Amino acid sequence: MSEPDLAEESDVEYPFFYVIRHAGRHHLGLFAAAVLLTIVAAVNSNLSVYVIGVGFDSVFSSQPLTVPLVPDTWVPTSTEGQLWFVGGFLTVSGTVGVFVAIGKNVLWELFGQRVVDDVRVQTFDSAQHQELAFFDTHQTGDVMSALNDDVNTLERGLSKSARWAVGTSVTLLSALAFMAYLNWQLTAVVFLLLPILAAINIHFSRALSDLYPPIQRAEGRLNARMESTLGGMDVVKANAAEGVERERFTGRSGDLRDKSWTGTRKRIQQTPLVQGVTGLVLVVVMIVGGLWVIDGPPLFFTGTLTVGQLVPFLFYMRNMEGGIEFLSALVGIYQWVNSSAARIVGVRNADDRVTEDTDAQPVERVDGDVAYEDVTFSYPGTDEAVVDSVSFDVEPGETVGIVGSTGAGKSTLIKLLLRFYEPDDGVIRLDGRDVTDVSRQDLRAAVGYVDQESFLFDGTVAENVAYGEEGVSHEEVVAAAREAGAHEFVADLEDGYETHVGQRGVKLSGGQRQRVAIARALVRDPSVLVFDEATSHVDNETEVLIRRNLAEITADRTTFVIAHRLSTVRDADRILVLDDGQLVEEGTHDELLAEDGTYADLWRVQVGEVDQLPDEFLERVGADD
Ligand SMILES: Nc1ncnc2c1ncn2[C@@H]1O[C@H](COP(=O)(O)OP(=O)(O)OP(=O)(O)O)[C@@H](O)[C@H]1O
């Protein structure tokens, strides 16, 4: 099955605006202030150009000097006085410009960073609320790439590009206003540019919107490769597979390079084309305007044009050129940011689809009656029922072993109880209540789960035992560790419960990790306990020790023990035997041996009576392989 694309999980039309609308609405004040200062900065800068132009005409051509926003009575009448006045005006305007520019930059950066911080936290939260099925089909590295690369792209898009976009648009519009004020007829010539520029930009926008998503996918795939290799470094080393990994990495890195280059090649054509067209129109305006100043209005133009009008006009056009180039480049930037936003929405949308427990009733205390009624389940994207019409009922306090050959569906059966996945058919009940009516939070507080991996987080032993449970006292941590048979070895560690276990708990042995993981499950005093191959990594003596403790732990709790080692479940009140997703036998150890079916065969394998195994069993095992 191919990996689904995060961007395709997004079903919104404009992901960038969708993300910004959701995260940005808490920071509207900052946004408004930033836009306001941007407008002030643009108008201020264009006003200075205008004042230079009219000052030029008044000083050298004795034209009257009028300055917007300044009362005429403030303007001196002598030529020299007017020169000093223009100089003074430009100084004030320049000083205001400096402070306004600093203020607007600060506001835009603050806005960008705050919005992106919200986006990052919300997306992380969505990712961790995903059903397990999401992580079965999406590579962790790809999701991390959405949280890192795509969120960073969004940040750049917001704090830089949005600022420039607003700034440039305001500069362009106010420049156009000043140009029209200076000479509307020449301004009309400039408008010839618009359809040509629009055509160029639409062409690039379409091309780039197709080119960027594959680049981001390639980035995600590269990240996934890195994550997988670094996560399995011990296996890489044990198999001397550095060469193979280098080759795989080189492949994905090359794929990213090629796709990036395709995008870059297209993008870098855009600016020179836009420059060429705007440069050409500038030349036309300069020649028409020049002829106008020298000989009076050419062609169909009317009225007068002075040097002091033409020079600032050309200056505005030159400035517009940079602005137009940037706005054109923005088309590409928008496509880039938009496809990053689509991946972010992909993570968040998938989260929206998680059936949340809106009608779930709170659960105070669970007795531990567990019933499966005709439960059937296939993993998403497959047709094969991994759990096939399974029914059984377990009384509170019962200890139930679940056995079966590898791949029979034992772990899946139990994951359905924890709502890691939802059954396709049938109902699972806890104390008579359909588990889909119990919130996941309550369910996972009522059911303690210890799996084969015994994953520990980087942190202290105490933090790992208390993990996920608020307000746990040190005494409770120690009590749980004692129950799990972990206290003795923890007390012998250099820093006791404050010892750091390292990444994934590497500083502890497999058996020690398992005991800490059992303590973690016990600390919340669950009514139902599940051990999924939880003692598979430990030696026989440790298993005996854990089992001795377990006898006490499980005495008044409903307990499920999934085990390959049948000695682990031999004393269970009942043993369920699964084969190919179906519940084929059920009973105590002695009853099942007497039945002489699948369980008896598995038992013979374990006690070494391989000669006595029936042919069908061997055939089935062979076929399974
Ligand atoms: N996340 C998954 N996505 C798709 N298929 C899966 C997934 N997890 C397990 N399976 C498939 O479901 C079947 C049952 O797996 P499960 O882990 O429940 O078996 P099991 O009896 O616990 O096996 P084992 O004893 O080897 O742990 C297997 O064929 C497995 O390939």
Description:
The protein has 20 helices and 10 strands. The strands form 2 sheets. Strands 6-7-8-3-9-10 form a 6-stranded mixed sheet, sandwiched between helices. It folds into 2 domains: 6-351, ABC transporter transmembrane region fold, CATH 1.20.1560; 397-409 and 452-624, P-loop containing nucleotide triphosphate hydrolases (Rossmann fold, 3-Layer(aba) Sandwich). With 625 residues, the protein is α/β, with parallel strands linked by helices. The model has no long low-confidence stretch (mean pLDDT 82). The two termini are 21 Å apart. The structure holds adenosine-5'-triphosphate. Adenosine-5'-triphosphate binds at residues 136, 379, 386, 404, 406-412.
Find the count of extended strands (DSSP E, 2+ residues). Answer: 10
CATH class of the largest domain: Mainly Alpha
User: CATH topology of the largest domain, what is it called?
Assistant: ABC transporter transmembrane region fold
What does the largest sheet look like?
Answer: 6 strands, mixed
Bound ligand species: adenosine-5'-triphosphate
What gross morphology would you assign?
elongated
- What portion of residues belong to β-strands? 5-15%
Q: Helicity level, as a percent range? A: 55-70%
Q: Using only CA atoms, what is the Rg?
A: 36 Å
Number of helices: 20
Secondary-structure arrangement, i.e. CATH architecture of the largest domain = Up-down Bundle
Please give the alpha-carbon distance between the first and last residues: 21 Å
Task: Give the low-pLDDT segments.
Answer: none
